[in-house]
Amino acid sequence: xxxxxxxxxxxxxxxxxxxxxxxxxxxxxxxxxxxxxxxxxxxxxxxxxxxxxxxxxxxxxxxxxxxxxxxxxxxxxxxxxxxxxxxxxxxxxxxxxxxxxxxxxxxxxxxxxxxxxxxxxxxxxxxxxxxxxxxxxxxxxxxxxxxxxxxxxxxxxxxxxxxxxxxxxxxxxxxxxxxxxxxxxxxxxxxxxxxxxxxxxxxxxxxxxxxxxxxxxxxxxxxxxxxxxxxxxxxxxxxxxxxxxxxxxxxxxxxxxxxxxxxxxxxxxxxxxxxxxxxxxxxxxxxxxxxxxxxxxxxxxxxxxxxxxxxxxxxxxxxxxxxxxxxxxxxxxxxxxxxxxxxxxxxxxxxxxxxxxxxxxxxxxxxxxxxxxxxxxxxxxxxxxxxxxxxxxxxxxxxxxxxxxxxxxxxxxxxxxxxxxxxxxxxxxxxxxxxxxxxxxxxxxxxxxxxxxxxxxxxxxxxxxxxxxxxxxxxxxxxxxxxxxxxxxxx
Length: 491
What we know:
This protein is α+β, with helices and mostly antiparallel strands. It contains 10 helices and 27 strands. Among the domains are: about 110 residues, Thrombin, subunit H (Beta Barrel); about 100 residues, 3-Layer(bab) Sandwich (Phage tail protein beta-alpha-beta fold); about 120 residues, no CATH class.
């Protein structure tokens, strides 16, 4: 059963402050779930436009029947790590200072014994429900981030009261939204956006955390304005049993930085999938509707890798060689590397400088010959994030962490004879948090982090391997005319 505390400081890592969990039904009646909740989960992700969650309840008084729960209820609570006082570091869904979540379904209802029901209430943010009930059918002109602000704050659409942390876009355009849900419209805009304060990079992420909305580029997560190093928000360690800290000055702080367990969901780039998806090489045919002409630029992963910022960014020339897949030969010809096959993926893109008879004013509209280059770069960068190294960590609950934060994972190599090495050069280093699951059960607050990286700590330099396989062509045999053919020998 979930415990309820209000502490000024942590007695141990994993403590939490949770004063109440109230269920408010469609009539305005309030019931305190304090003694019947056995588990609470909250989910947030840079790939999701809204926050969702669930509460597992043991019900011995048929509250579900007496309250006539039907999917129009609200859940109110306030959760924080003890000692946290800043409003933006809390998970505030209270009626007084925050915004309650909306219940939208009940699942897994079962009768455990004669007088006890168990079921799960699923809830989501208010904006999640508003998105399902409204549509956008209008045009937006100007800077793309301003269009996002208008959609989110429009009283007839999302009508959010939450904080929006946005990054200015470097391009302006006229966007026509053809009767889409608001979040789909914003995602369409995010795909066309490029950062104003970064020299490279394309495509934004639009997502919601318990602290508000974010509209930002990948570069903003791994660097400051694409130029200077961004410091990790937290550093985590995984200490094998043979490695022990002899002098731990602050055990609670030490435990907050310690990883309970970890596993790699994907610990190597799926070369086959990434090849087909255009991560390494991509030809984008751009057709200019105004000039009736086309160009077909080619994206090359190894040549253009340094144009964008990556997780192990250190503002050094070595960053150019921190790609997880080396640029060595990959075929019998012993010449081409994996980035020199642009036919791996071919895309067609329509573009024009004069959309709706107006000069649209920036990249993705001004220099139309660069549109294909930027689109290839955007697709490759997103694939590197989605299909790169993905790590899952289980840690003690720290309510100030959120998706989009940069962390460092100090992972030692598992080699028995290399105990003196502090960092695994491939799988250690910096990661961006992409998903968080906040879990409250009994007296423990834990977080499951899903993190990703699109680079490696130590630079990878291509060698010059010599393939020994024979290059002799196979024989051609007509199965009916060849006297030496196997079919003729057995007939």
